[in-house]
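Something for you to look into today, if you have time. Just paste the record in under my message, thanks.
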Amino acid sequence: MGFLNVLHIKLRQQTVVKLQACIRLLKKLEDICLSSPLQPAQSNLYEGKVILAPMVKLGRLPMRLLALKYGADLVYTDEIFSQQLKHCTRTKDDRLGLVNFTCGDFHLFQTCAAERKKVILQMGTNDPDEALEAAKLVQNDVLGIDVNFGCPTPNAELSQTGAFLLNRPDLVVQILRKLVNNLSVPVTCKIRVLPDIKETLELVRRIESTGVSALGVHGRLRVERRNVAVRVNEIKAITEAVSIPVIANGGSLEYINTFDDIIHFREKTNSLSVMVAQSAIKNTSVFRKNGVLPIHKVIQDYVTLVS
């Protein structure tokens, strides 16, 4: 075989190798693009914040406005199920300045301009497509969408939502990725810790990979209630395992009675933000930097907002 023929064969082999390398690179780029959100994660929205936590039947508009009045940076709605929300009709009440999402005669979600840039709608769901349909309906009226993977109630077990999805991490990832990749607002979720810390850390790393902007963590197991001590060390371990903001939750029983206590709990858990539930029910002025108000004053303020 002549020299030119040998050279031609070697050049052709090198070309094939380079093409194969290019194909592998393109495949990696394709995977990155498919897993990347349409909108960049807005993690800074969830840094250094004190937050009204989502609470069943309590996180309605008056409670949210009261928390904002006293100094909360962000407020979460009570859990709203995607199965109901997707059937709602959006209407405006110009006289009262309200935006209503109504199912029949029932206002499933109400909001107003005063909370427009501070309200996060928490959604209960177990279906990625249904979650997206519902979230698209409200995304122009809220700051962000949060998915509830933390609720441990019998209703959550019956509907297989909330904390009962934590043993189905593939579905958790599918739901979050569907929302992150198709919404124009930040997406977050709230979880509880698992019995095995290694499984918890594996789960939160998978959650982070979806592109969510922050992660809320209730420091208790699904079977534990607020009479059980919050697992501070587990929350701290999660903050060290992910780079997105972690929002610590569950400290009301032992730690939080004042605004200063909120900051102390944030430092103790190494989190970037804290969400408060039970202490806000006890006295919503817990968000005031200048100290809590007498409960009769809080009641007066609440009645004023309702009326």
